[in-house]
Predict the structure.
Amino acid sequence: MRKKKGNTFKNIHTIFPSLLAKLSKEYNLKHFIHLSALGINEAKDSNYAKSKLEGEIEVSKSFPLATILRPSVVFSVDDNFTTNFMTLLNRLPVFPLYYNGDTKFAPIHCSDLTDIIYYVISNKIYSKIIECVGPEIITFKEILKKLLYLIGKKRLLIPFPLPLAKINARLFELMPNPLLTQDQLRLLKYDNILSKKYKSNSDIGVPSIRTFDQEVKKYSYMWREGGQFSTEKYLSDKN
């Protein structure tokens, strides 16, 4: 959700997918699956959400039979979500809660998302918007608490007043890799769960089965004291 030097939301989320869709149509590909994002209809004040929505429109123009998948936040061992937060929670004694940490998410594991993509291709599902969510709804505060438990840390989670959060975001944007941007702060106003305006992955027959705790536990040892030697395997061998 962060723009990097030389890349803009418009380039990555709108122009590039549009070009891919045009080329796919030109070369007579049978199917085009576009990965968008959940909640973009509601987050009208976010540049990220606007570019994602514009990308969907351009893809649909260029490839009318395209299937658009809108996942909630996607997590795995190589993500920029759980791994970043575990790193920050590992280092910071206090962690800010924006909007009191009440924003709701339905995190979906990358393997569940690839299962959905495979199902869409195998069953020839065309010209649909499908919202993709995990099996649980978890607030931002609950996510942080789960991560703290998994890495064996205790930290103060303190609600941050919005005016102060906005100032922080502006200052963070001066850094090469900002912890928080103004656009991310705006996105956190909106829940990232099913809108129920479109079919979900469960509706098409592919419910997610991987829970947040079970999956993050598999790689959270990298942020625990002792690293891999803190895992159950090594602890049981030791005993």
About this structure: The mean pLDDT is 92.
